[in-house]
Amino acid sequence: MCGAPEQGNDLSTEGIDTTKETVIQGIVTSGDGSPVPSAFVRLLDSTGEFTAEVVSSATGQFRFFAAPGEWTVRALHSNKSGQTAVSADKGVNQASLVLA
Asked: What Pfam families does the record point to (predicted)?
């Protein structure tokens, strides 16, 4: 069983203080804007090194807890992929991805 937290839950109801945490989260969507469930979402550090992976929720949501800094978030699903760069600070940082 994976140790990753349930994707898409409200952080405030889980007692997580986002003023002290660096959270990178978003939604994986297809080109038409519909959410993509079960995509593999990877977090890469500033050198491109693999750091973590989660599977997007039924509504395409994903979330990582990371250190402040420069990150790349990459999503893979079937034969489609997408990625975005994130300059993350403490708090919630959005990193939505569109697969092409």
From this structure: DUF1416
Residue 80 structural domain: 22-88
The whole-angstrom separation of Cα 4 and Cα 70 is 21
pTM to 2 decimals? 0.85
Largest CA distance in the chain: 37
3-state secondary structure of 75: strand
Q: For 68-75, what is the mean pLDDT?
A: 98
CA–CA gap between residue 4 and residue 54 (Å, rounded): 7
User: Does residue 3 carry a pLDDT above 70?
Assistant: no
Instruction: Judge contact between 25 and 91, C-beta under 8 A.
Output: no
Residue 40 inside a domain? The answer is yes
